[in-house]
Amino acid sequence: MKKMIFATILMVMALSAVAQVPNDSIVADFNEFVRLLEETHPDPYTNYGGKPFFRKAAMETRFNLIQDSVTSTDELARRMREFLVPLHDGHTGIWTQQNSNNNALAPIMFEAINDAIIIKHLPDEYKELIGSRLLAIENVPVNDVCDGLAKYYTTENNIGKKLLVCYRGMQPGTLRKVIPGVSDEFITYQIETPKGKRMDLKLPLMPMNQAREWYMANQGAKASTKAVCPDGDLAFDFVGKNKNTMYLKLKSIMARDCFEYMRSNGWDYQEQLQRVYYFWGKEMPADPDQAIAQMPSFSDEFEKMLQLMKQNGSKNLIIDLRGNDGGWTPITIPTLYQMWGDKYLIDQGNWGVCGARLISPLLMKKYNSSLEEENAANNTNFLMGDYMFDEDGFAVNEVTDEIRNGFIANAMSSVKDKLAAQHGKPVYTPEHVYVLTDPGTFSAAFHYAFYLWKMGATVVGVTCSQAPNTYMEVTEFMLPRTGMRGSISNSLQVFLPVDDPRAHDFTPDLMPTYEDYKRYDFDDNTILLYLLDYINGKH
Predict the structure, then answer these.
(1) How far apart are the C-alpha atoms of 354 and 369, rounded to whole Å?
(2) What's the whole-number mean pLDDT along residues 118-143?
């Protein structure tokens, strides 16, 4: 699920023709979606208050679809999204782009930080207001706007509510859901400037075509004026005046390793492969095998980086997961072994994490397999509707050759020979590992941050919009009559005790405040600059 502000804005501005289908087809596809949800999701009931209340919500949605004679797939998508809000599941949703009811947008972009929502981009005539705190919209306090929007859009935690304002706070049609009477001509924001002055910022709305150009021109982070570091995917280099600190930028958790795995298991990988090349901004070769071959291997590049650190005796490793909305968690696991060797195999067995994957027809379709084939291959006797539990990993006190070789045999890595050559020893273990996160750190990227944290890394930045105790994984579906596509989570994860304050909002160990952002002039790399000063003992 994409968590990038720009991707959301583009989705809102994608004004395509709305498909019209008979009402009975609309209702039938909604019924099919509810059936798939109950059959595939590990627990669709608890967050609704139990099965009766889940069914009540489904019945009410169905009744309203019939009562209102809905024939628009766009309207069906909107109502399905609202039906899913109580689930609080960022991996379950409808992919069909929803046509916007906004003909104009306010030219403003926001950023959610630990203790505020701040203005990230404005037209040049207002540039002195960059970094201002958002206090209210049309005199409605920002926290009330967050809570109001959370009744219509899925979130997993509190920082996710802030993101809703970042995604939707420039859309008059959307804001009317929680602020009646928002004008079609302007939106007024109550802000506090970096100098402490409170004021109204009244922004005239831009026509959609003009707004699209403005948002595209301002999407993403600007080049930092104070931090020089690589910005590609799987890009690494030393930062600072010496080679004591290595910096690794990961924009996604996708690499050759996972595509080779999908290909070897007969999975359908073509669409994901195209998405990755599009995300990287590269032209994809027509031959899929060539496209996979020219991708970097995650664990191979990571090994090269560690060898470079070893040669220079580097103490610090910074892994930047800001804005990384995930991919394939298994390709991160070999890197933990590369840094800690057998220690990782021992430690991960005592993390106390639990996962439960529900066996369903959609899951078997995803695996390009059948229940009979899975049971035969794994010497199990599972039934449809059973759960596969993963608790405490290996839970061993000593790693034997058999355990180590089994781990390597099952590792999702394109360089298993290099893993085997370690013989349980690390390639190199940095003295300090730091992980940079922000609200855009989601799904597999959050998993990687959490696993590194469990191995002793320090998390720095802003809370992730992914909750530690939540639903996970993407199981795709397509509804037969409307052709609408989406995904349903097929697993439940419990990473922390339910009473742990971090179970839903995984707050970093080091959290820069608004005053820190101001100190770094709201630089796009404030979190990195803050950490580098911390490493150098400046705060």
Answers:
(1) 25
(2) 96
